Amino acid sequence: MTTVVGPERQEGSGTPAAPSGVAAAKSAGKAGRNLPAAIGVGGTLGIGLILVLVFVPLVWIGVVAVALAVATYEVSKRLREGGVLVPRIPLILGGQAMIWLGWPFGAVGVLSAAVGTVVVCMVWLLLRQGFGTAPKNYLEELSVTVLVACWLPLLASFTVLMVLQDNGAGRILVFVIGVVCSDIGGYIAGVLFGKHPMAPAISPKKSWEGLVGSLIFCIIGCLLTVTLILEANSLIGILLGVVLVVTGTLGDLIESQVKRDLRIKDMGTLLPGHGGIMDRLDSLLPSAFVAWLVFTVLL
């Protein structure tokens, strides 16, 4: 989610410096990204996801599984570079179990896989160097491992539970469109009007003006999609719009703080103009749980 302030407030983020000079100024937008590349990649991904949801909605599960495997690899790689040796293999395999077991067994399958993943990781870290050697930094590495398991695959599994519900493809579309509208609204309002940083110690580019833009765009987007796609009460759209902005913004701030602690700009480099897969999921992951909860309770 992007809620940027004006260009005069973009320095001092604590992340590696962006390329300098005229070439960088031309290629990067006011949010510090290569805007043409970001739009091209984002548009391509968006169209692809829409086609999947409209014509083969169950393929969504495979899309989520692949995205989470890559994101888990990105995060574990960055953590290892920062000196936190999380168990990559159990996290990736356990994440796949959370995603795929949600298909036949629903929430019970997801929860069982999540608990199993944590147990396996506990033992893996304990015995990684064999019985004769006491593990180092066990508590720290186990805590971060549990965080990664809950932050990535567990939250993502709610999109699987969502797509399996009545009109699941429509629910996913409403959820994704809401987050995208929040992102676009925050970017536009932040670039045009952003003057008051929201959380300068965590993400200096976010502004209160951008947050207002996110609220306006997201509420309008959710209001229209809930009414037209789900044919539900418009008040649900308003509520969903508000909560998606809150969770999306907090999700983005959480990832920003993690990257700040690791002294990195992006989790990966797979998507030009965006960073890694995880850099695109930061707002979506906590919002997935909230959207699933709203739909489950109110629809």
Automatic annotation (TrEMBL):
GO terms for molecular function: phosphatidate cytidylyltransferase activity. Its EC number is 2.7.7.41. Residues 1-21 are annotated as: Disordered. Residues 12-21 have a biased composition (Low complexity). Coiled coil: none annotated. InterPro entries: PC_trans. It is an enzyme of class 2 (transferase). Pathway: Lipid metabolism; Phospholipid metabolism; CDP-diacylglycerol biosynthesis; CDP-diacylglycerol from sn-glycerol 3-phosphate: step 3/3. The keyword Disulfide bond does not apply. It is found in: Cell membrane. The keyword Phosphoprotein does not apply. It catalyses: a 1,2-diacyl-sn-glycero-3-phosphate + CTP + H(+) = a CDP-1,2-diacyl-sn-glycerol + diphosphate. It is a multi-pass membrane protein. Keywords: Cell membrane, Lipid biosynthesis, Lipid metabolism, Membrane, Nucleotidyltransferase, Phospholipid biosynthesis, Phospholipid metabolism, Transferase, Transmembrane, Transmembrane helix. The chain crosses the membrane at residues 45-73, 109-127, 139-164, 170-190, 211-230, 236-254. Belongs to the CDS family. This is Phosphatidate cytidylyltransferase.
